Description:
The protein is an alpha+beta fold.
Amino acid sequence: MHRGALQTLGNERHLERDKEEERGQRRRQDPGSLAAPQAPATSTAGVIPVFVFPAELAFYADDQSSHKQVLTLYNPFVSVLKFKVLSTAPSRYTVVDAEGRVKPQSCIDIVVRHKDISARHYGTTDRFRIEVSEEGNRKNLGRKEITSALHPTKRELYPTIQRRPLRETIAWQPQHILPAQQASARPLSPALFSLYLLVGVICIAFLMLPLQGEMSTLVPENLHATVIQKLVSAYVLGLLTMVFLQG
């Protein structure tokens, strides 16, 4: 009896070991079942794009109005974003509000002034970097670089237009254009001229008639013209005048 009882306990222990091994295999196959629950991701978790316009800044020495440029930073997300503006040449520029916050689904203007307009900086390319992070979190979620360059004048940006040979424009001579007067070279026939003249007289008569609703002792009321009739008569009379002048 005792041996049978021990054997039964031994079988139960073997069964428990088998169950534990099966549990271990399941845990190894599905490690996510034992992982700690992850926190819900925020709307700006991870790396986010930074929306800045324009993508580059161009300053011109001969144009004082271009010495101040504006960068517009957009926040299309549902949380507040903090931003910081960095530069590779901070001594040449003055940035108004280099750090700040952008409200959700809004934008903010960042004013950049070039304070060292000199010939030694012509053609030099500097870079600005805008770093953004979520409010309450110091980790940078995104960044965008904007190039900046100083030019002596705007005309240097279009050298191909300035250096275009003059003979390319001279090749088009005025005689290649048909004069407008040659388009109506045929004179009017007497019958057609009489018809146009009759229509013109009728249009003038309609224009001289009083409008409907006006009191007139010379013209009966049923012969008064409407506003539409006068407008059509004036339009037709204008077309006839053009035909007569061209003929």
